[in-house]
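Incident log, support desk, overnight shift.

02:14 A customer reports that sequence design results differ from what the structure should imply. Their input is reproduced verbatim below. On-call engineer (initials T.W.) acknowledged and began investigating.
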C-alpha cells in the first residue's frame, strides 16, 4: 500500500477510463448569508480522493489533481477497493449564476513503472493549452515523474498523457511546484540525491518526438536553504523565486524542531544560455519577535516587485504562523509581518500560499482552526501605508460534521469568488472543492 509520508513531508488508471467520467452536481447560489458552498464532493474510488491544488483557465473553468483515487489497482487497496494512484480533473463553470458545474476526469494515473503516482501540486498551462504536472512517486524508479496532458482535437474526446521525465536515484526525486516560461521550459522543486533539495529545469526537445532535457539548477545544502516547497514563480526577466521550509541562517524559538527557520530566495537567470544560475537569499526568517518561520506555500508578486507569502510557524510565542511581505530596497529586502495567527483566538498553521483581488486584499487558508478543519481568511489592505491589515474570517471548516478538513491548497480568485480544495472531509471523507464569496 502506498504511504502518505511523502505527501505529509510536503504538507510540513481505473482499468479503462477511455470514455471520460462526467459527473454533474449543483452549486447553491452563494449569498451573503451563506459564504461557502461545496461545488464537488469526491467519492474516493473512481473520481479521485484528496484534492491538492487548483488552477483556472480564462473561461473560469477549474483544473486540479487528486493525490489518490481513480481506481487503479497498482497503488494498493483498502480491502477489495483500490486506493488509486491519483487523477487529473476539470470542473466546467456553469453558464449562469447558481447553475450546474460539471466534473470531467481528464486522466487517471496508472502507477507502476510507466506512469506516475500521487500528483501533489497545481498544474500549469502552456500557451498551446497543454497541461503539465508532477507526481511524487511512480515512474521508472518510483521517485516521481513530470507529465504532459494534451487536449483532444475534438471536444469530448480523451486527453493524451505523456510522461516527459522519470526521476532516478541520482537526481533525488519527489518533483513538485512547477512553473513554465514563455519558451516552454519547466522549472520545479525536488528532493536532492545527497543534498537538502534542488531546483531543476526540464527543457523541451528541439524537434517533435525528442527527449526532454533535465538540468539541476541549484542544490540546497542547509546554509543556502533546505526543503524547497510551495512552488516557483518567474519575473519578467526569467528569474525564479521561491522559499525553503528550513535551512538558512535564522534560528529562533518559533522555528519547528530546533531547525533553522527557512528563507526566501531568487535564482538569477544566466546571461548566456547554458550558464550558471545564481542564488541570492532575499530573507532569512528568524521565528523571533513576531517574525515568521518555515514558509511552506511559496511566494507571489503583488504591487510591483513586493513579495507576499505565509509561514507555517513563527509569529506569536506559540509559533502559529504569519502572513508576510518582502519589500526591496537599496540595502536589501525588508520583511514585514502583516498578521500573526493565534490558536487561542482562531485558525493557525497557514500552509497555503496567498492570492490577491483587484482591490489589493489578500486571501489564504489555515490548516487548523478551533473546529479542527482550518479556515479561509481575508486580510483587507490598509487605506494608508503602514496601517494594519484587517483580518476577516470567511469560513471555518468543521471536520467533526463532515464539513471538510485541511484546505491546504492556495485559493483561486475568479471574478468575485474564491475557489479551493479541502484535502479531506465531505460526504465521502475524500475531500471536496468549495466556492466562497469574500
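02:41 Re-run completed on a clean worker. Output:
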Amino acid at each position: 500500500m502506498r504511504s502518505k509520508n511523502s505527501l505529509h513531508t510536503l504538507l510540513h488508471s481505473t482499468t479503462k477510463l477511455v470514455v471520460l467520467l462526467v459527473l454533474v452536481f449543483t452549486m447553491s447560489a452563494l449569498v451573503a448569508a451563506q459564504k461557502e458552498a461545496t461545488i464537488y464532493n469526491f467519492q474516493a474510488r473512481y473520481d479521485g480522493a484528496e484534492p491538492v491544488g487548483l488552477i483556472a483557465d480564462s473561461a473560469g473553468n477549474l483544473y486540479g489533481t487528486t493525490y489518490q483515487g481513480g481506481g487503479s489497482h497498482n497503488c494498493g487497496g483498502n480491502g477489495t477497493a483500490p486506493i488509486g494512484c491519483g487523477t487529473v480533473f476539470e470542473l466546467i463553470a456553469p453558464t449562469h449564476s447558481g447553475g450546474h458545474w460539471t466534473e470531467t476526469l481528464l486522466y487517471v494515473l496508472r502507477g507502476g513503472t510507466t506512469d506516475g503516482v500521487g500528483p501533489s501540486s497545481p498544474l500549469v498551462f502552456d500557451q498551446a493549452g497543454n497541461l503539465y504536472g508532477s507526481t511524487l512517486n511512480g515512474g521508472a524508479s518510483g521517485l516521481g515523474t513530470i507529465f504532459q496532458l494534451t487536449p483532444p482535437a475534438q471536444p469530448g474526446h480523451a486527453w493524451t498523457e505523456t510522461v516527459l521525465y522519470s526521476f532516478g536515484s541520482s537526481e533525488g526525486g519527489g518533483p513538485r511546484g512547477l512553473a513554465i516560461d514563455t519558451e516552454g521550459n519547466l522549472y520545479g522543486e525536488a528532493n536532492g540525491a545527497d543534498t537538502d533539495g534542488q531546483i531543476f529545469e526540464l527543457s523541451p526537445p528541439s524537434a517533435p518526438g525528442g527527449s526532454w532535457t533535465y538540468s539541476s539548477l541549484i542544490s540546497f545544502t542547509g546554509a543556502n536553504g533546505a526543503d524547497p516547497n510551495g512552488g516557483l514563480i518567474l519575473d519578467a526577466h526569467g528569474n525564479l523565486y521561491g522559499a525553503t521550509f528550513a535551512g538558512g541562517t535564522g534560528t529562533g524559538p518559533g522555528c519547528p524542531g530546533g531547525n533553522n527557520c527557512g528563507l526566501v530566495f531568487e535564482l538569477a537567470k544566466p546571461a548566456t544560455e547554458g550558464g550558471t544560475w545564481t542564488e541570492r537569499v532575499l530573507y532569512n526568517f528568524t521565528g523571533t519577535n513576531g517574525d515568521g518561520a518555515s514558509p511552506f506555500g511559496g511566494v507571489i508578486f503583488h504591487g510591483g516587485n513586493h513579495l507576499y507569502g505565509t509561514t507555517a510557524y513563527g509569529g506569536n510565542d506559540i509559533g502559529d504562523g504569519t502572513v508576510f511581505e518582502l519589500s526591496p530596497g537599496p540595502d536589501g529586502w525588508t520583511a514585514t509581518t502583516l498578521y500573526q495567527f493565534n490558536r487561542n483566538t482562531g485558525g493557525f498553521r497557514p500552509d497555503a500560499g496567498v492570492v490577491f483581488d483587484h482591490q489589493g486584499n489578500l486571501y489564504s487558508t489555515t490548516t487548523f482552526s478551533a473546529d479542527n478543519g482550518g479556515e479561509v481568511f481575508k486580510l483587507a489592505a490598509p487605506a494608508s501605508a503602514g496601517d494594519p491589515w484587517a483580518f476577516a474570517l470567511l469560513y471555518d471548516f468543521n471536520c467533526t460534521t463532515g464539513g471538510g478538513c485541511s484546505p491546504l491548497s492556495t485559493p483561486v480568485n475568479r471574478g468575485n469568488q474564491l475557489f479551493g480544495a479541502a484535502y479531506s472531509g465531505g460526504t465521502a471523507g475524500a475531500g471536496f472543492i468549495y466556492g466562497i464569496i469574500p
